[in-house]
Structure formats: C-alpha cells, structure tokens
C-alpha cells in the first residue's frame, strides 16, 4: 500500500492512524511510530503542491507577490449561517463556499479567494434556531465595501458569488453598479450565477444537478435535501459537519414532482428539511461540487473574456 493511498487531502486518515497505533501497541516502539508519522507527513508535503489561493491564509507580502505574478482576480464567495435540518451543521454554506471557492480559484489559475462572508439575507427563527441573517440592504453594502477594498489592494477583476438563495438578486445588481463605475478604469466587477441556479435560459450548476437527480430517480427536494446534504457529506462528514447517524431518517416536508401542486392532505413537517435527504452520499456531493467548479470557471472566463489557464496540479 502506497503513502498516496493511505494519506489524502493533507490529513492523516484513520487507516494511517491505526497503523501508527498498532506499531506502538505491539511493542515496536514509539520511535518506530514517530518515524512512520514523519514519513507520512513528508509524503503529504510532497503531494501538496497546490498554490495558496486563500486571502485569509496569506501574508500581505504573499498577496502582493501573487497580484504581481498575475493573480489579479478576487473571488467574493458569500456563504451564510442557517438551519439545515437535524442532520447538517448551520454553517454549511460557509464550508461549501470556502472549499468550492478555493477549487475555482485554483482552476482559474489567476484568482485569489477572499474570506467568505458567513451571513446572508435571512431571518432567524425561535422554532429552528440555527439562522443568523442580514437585511438585503446591509448585505449589499458589505459586499460593496469588500469589493472596493479589494480593488484598492490591487485586484483588477472582482467576481461576486453566493451559495445561498437569499442575496443573489443583490449580488447581480451590485456587480452591474460597480462594473459601470470601475470599467472606465479597466477594472471589472462581474456576477457569477452559474455556480448557483443560473437563469431559465442558462441554468446553473444547481438547476442542472437537480434535473440530473430527477432523471436518475432521486426524490424531489430543496433545502437540506439530497443536494445540500450530499455536498456537506463530501466536503465535511469526517470533520463533523454532518450527523451521519441522522441521515437515514432525514425526511422533511413532502415535495411533489416539479410542476405539480403540493397535496394539501399531506401533513407538513417542520424540521428544516424540504423533501427527502435519506439517499444523500459523498459520491453525489462530489459530482455536484465538480459541476459548480466547472460551471463557475467557464462563466467567469466568459465574463472576463479570458482564455482558460492550465489547472494547478
């Protein structure tokens, strides 16, 4: 078994941890266990060749050097904090935005991901106390100031995106406003909607993924359903973002087939789930995240009229 098979994504897997524990328990000595740990760490360092693209993890010198080297696009990917059913942690939008945004930046090759804004237009509820929301006006104002701060820092292209339904309209309007203001200075501000639902004429990743689910026999759903839960399982189940023991019972408010009215005789379920999330899986989440990245990269390159760069390996 190779180190690459045991070590994955910059963390010790349970398999490797068990091997180290086994070595110590069998009396092979702590030195051997420590040696195995060091070897695995060295292997991880060798595998991790992806450039740093997260603004909040960089120093000011690294940001400046990145801009000078051509990373002049800043991604403002908004998250959100809200209840996501009994099985999912409230900060799921932030987990998704951070990792999807990082992958988009890497695939673009010329971008840096700004810190994810963890709040979006929404309203708190005493019945389902997992939401912290902003007014649409405050949300737009915060994104405007963040965008202009990044422009002052030297970025020439600003891309606005959001992982939550609330706020999409505001991001689109803000991008149009700032682009009109800054384009005469050869600075662009654009809105990427393909990472989310998109439009009727040009469906985004979420709309196309929901269609794929329906075409392949998965139940209709919405908030905290198969799509949301699968993303979180794929990106964060090992880190506690999903209560995997609750996924088999993750059944929420019934949803009819697309285009059909809801059956009024069916009792409502108020647990934060819209639809049926019981068939959620990491495999589905991986497919959805990859679609989001591909759709976003294609649209951003089109909006900024640039040729795609080689993906960082």
Query: Average pLDDT, to the nearest integer?
Result: 87
What would the CATH topology of the largest domain be?
Answer: Rossmann fold
Largest sheet: 4 strands, parallel
Please provide the count of β strands.
6
Q: What share of residues are in beta strands?
A: 5-15%
- Which regions have little confidence, pLDDT < 50, spanning 5+ residues? 1-23
Apparent shape: globular
CATH architecture descriptor of the largest domain:
3-Layer(aba) Sandwich
Distance between the termini: 23 Å
SS class: alpha/beta
CATH classification, class level of the largest domain? Alpha Beta
Rg over C-alpha atoms, rounded to the nearest angstrom: 22 Å
What is the helix tally?
10
Strand order of the largest sheet: 2-1-5-6
Portion in helices: 40-55%
Within CATH, the superfamily of the largest domain carries the name Creatininase
Task: Explain what you see.
- This protein is α/β, with parallel strands linked by helices and 313 residues long.
- It has 2 domains: 3-47, no CATH class; 55-304, 3-Layer(aba) Sandwich (Rossmann fold), CATH 3.40.50.
- The chain has 10 helices and 6 strands; from the N terminus they run ααααβαβββαβαβααα.
- It has helices at residues 3-6, 14-25, 30-47, 60-68, 92-108, 136-153, 168-182, 205-215, 226-236, 282-304, and strands spanning 73-78, 111-113, 120-121, 133-134, 157-162, 188-191.
- The strands form 2 sheets. It has a 4-stranded parallel β-sheet with strand order 2-1-5-6, with helices on both faces. The protein has a two-stranded parallel sheet with strand order 3-4.
- Helix 5 (92-108) crosses helix 10, helix 6 packs parallel to helix 7 and helix 9 (226-236) crosses helix 10 (282-304).
- It is globular and about 60 Å long.
- The two termini are 23 Å apart.
- The relative contact order is 0.13.
- Residues 1-23 have low confidence and may be disordered.
């Amino acid at each position: 078994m190779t180190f690459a098979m045991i070590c994955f994504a910059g963390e010790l897997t349970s398999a490797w941890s068990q091997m180290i524990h086994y070595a110590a328990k069998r009396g092979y000595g702590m030195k051997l266990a420590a040696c195995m740990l060091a070897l695995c760490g060295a292997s991880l360092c060798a595998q991790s060749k992806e450039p740093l693209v997260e603004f909040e993890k960089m120093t000011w010198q690294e940001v400046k050097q990145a801009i000078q080297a051509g990373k002049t696009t800043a991604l403002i990917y908004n998250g959100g904090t809200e209840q996501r059913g009994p099985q999912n942690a409230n900060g799921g939008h932030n987990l998704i935005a951070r990792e999807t945004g990082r992958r988009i930046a890497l695939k673009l090759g010329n971008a840096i991901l700004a810190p994810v804004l963890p709040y979006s237009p929404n309203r708190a509820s005493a019945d389902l106390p997992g939401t912290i929301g902003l007014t649409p006006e405050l949300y737009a104002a915060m994104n405007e100031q963040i965008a202009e701060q990044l422009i002052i820092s030297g970025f020439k292209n600003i891309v606005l995106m959001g992982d939550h339904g609330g706020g999409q309209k505001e991001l689109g309007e803000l991008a149009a406003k700032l682009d009109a203001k800054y384009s005469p200075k050869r600075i662009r501000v654009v809105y990427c909607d393909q990472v989310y639902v998109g439009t009727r004429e040009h469906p985004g990743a979420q709309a196309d993924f929901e269609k794929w689910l329906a075409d392949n026999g998965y139940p209709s759903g919405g908030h905290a359903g198969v799509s949301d839960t699968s993303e979180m399982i794929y990106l964060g189940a090992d880190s506690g973002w999903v209560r995997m023991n609750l996924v088999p019972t993750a059944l929420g408010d019934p949803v009819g087939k697309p285009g059909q009215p809801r059956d009024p005789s069916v009792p409502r379920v108020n647990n934060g789930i819209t639809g049926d999330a019981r068939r959620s899986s990491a495999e589905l989440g991986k497919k959805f995240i990859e679609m989001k990245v591909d759709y976003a990269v294609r649209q951003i390159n089109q909006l900024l009229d640039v040729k795609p760069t080689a993906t960082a390996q």
